[in-house]
Amino acid sequence: MRLLLATALTMIAFAANSILNRMALAAVSIDALSFGAIRLAAGAVMLALIVAVTRGGVRLTRTGRWVGVAALLAYVFGFSLGYVSIDAGLGTLILFGTVQITLFTAAIRGGEAVSTRRKLGAALALFGLGLVLWPSGAIDISLVAAAGLVVAGIGWGFYTLNGRRATDALGATMTSFVLAAPVGILLALAPLLFDQTMLVTHYGVGLAILSGAVTSGLGYAVWYSVLPHLATTTAAIAQISVPIIAMAGGILFLGEPLTPLYLAATVLVIGGVALSLRR
C-alpha cells in the first residue's frame, strides 16, 4: 500500500509540473530557458538543504551521476521548449509516447519479461490517452517543438532507468540537481551573448521555484525511492496516468471544460494501468 501511495504521489507531482509550466508560459511571464534554469536551481537548493539538515552535510553520490545529470537537463529544457509553440494535448502525447517507447525498449533489451496482461494494459491506457489528447482538425506541428518533446521523453526515460540503480534516492536526486543547475543557468544566460532579451517576471519566477523545489525536487526524490521496487515496464505504464491527472488539474485550476471524452479516456487509462499493475 505504501508503494502504491508513493507512486500515486509522484504521478500527481509530475502532472503538477505540466500545469505550472503551462501557467507560466501561457501567461508569457517567463521564457522557457529561464523557467528551466530556475526550476533546476530551486530543486538543487531545496534538496541540498534537506540533505544538509538530515545528514549533517552534503555529499554527492557517484552511482549514475553523469547519466542522471544529462538526462535531467534533456528532460527539463526539452519539456520547457516544447510547450512554447506546440499544442499542449499533442505535446503531452508526444512526450509520454516517447517515454513509453524508451522504457519498453530498455526492458526488452534488458531481458525483462513482459506479460500479455501488461501489454494489453499498456495498449488500453495508451488508447485512452490518445483518444483525449489527439487533436481534431488540421494539425500544425512545429518540428523544433516536437523534437524538444521527443528529447524530453528520452531524457525522462533514461532518468527513470538511472533511478532504478540508485541505493540512495535522496542523495542521487540531489546530486543530479546540484550538478545540472549551473549548466542550466549558463544555458539560460546564453541568449544574452547574441543580444537576445530574457523574459522574467515575479509570477513566472514564483511558478518556476514552486515547480523546482516541490513538484520536481521532492517529487523526484520520492520517485527514485520507488523505482527500485518497480519493473521497468510497470514504471512506464504508471506514468501514462500523468497526462490525465494534468488535465484534471487544468479543469480544477485553469477552468478547462469537463467533457464526456475526458471521462471516457480517464476510465480507459485507469483501467489499463490497473490491469498492468495487477499481480
UniProtKB/TrEMBL annotation:
Q: Where in the cell is it found?
A: Membrane
InterPro entries from the UniProt entry: AA-Vitamin_Transporters (IPR050638), EamA_dom (IPR000620), EmrE-like (IPR037185)
TM ranges are 36-54, 66-84, 90-108, 120-137, 143-161, 173-194, 200-223, 235-254, 260-277
- Tell me which UniProt keywords the record has, alphabetically: Membrane, Transmembrane, Transmembrane helix
**Membrane as a keyword?**
yes
**One GO CC term, this protein:** membrane
Name the Pfam families on file: EamA
Q: How does it sit in the membrane?
A: Multi-pass membrane protein
Predominantly, its location class is membrane
Domain annotation EamA: ranges: 148-277
Name this polypeptide is given: Membrane protein, putative
Q: What is the lineage of its organism?
A: Bacteria, Pseudomonadati, Pseudomonadota, Alphaproteobacteria, Rhodobacterales
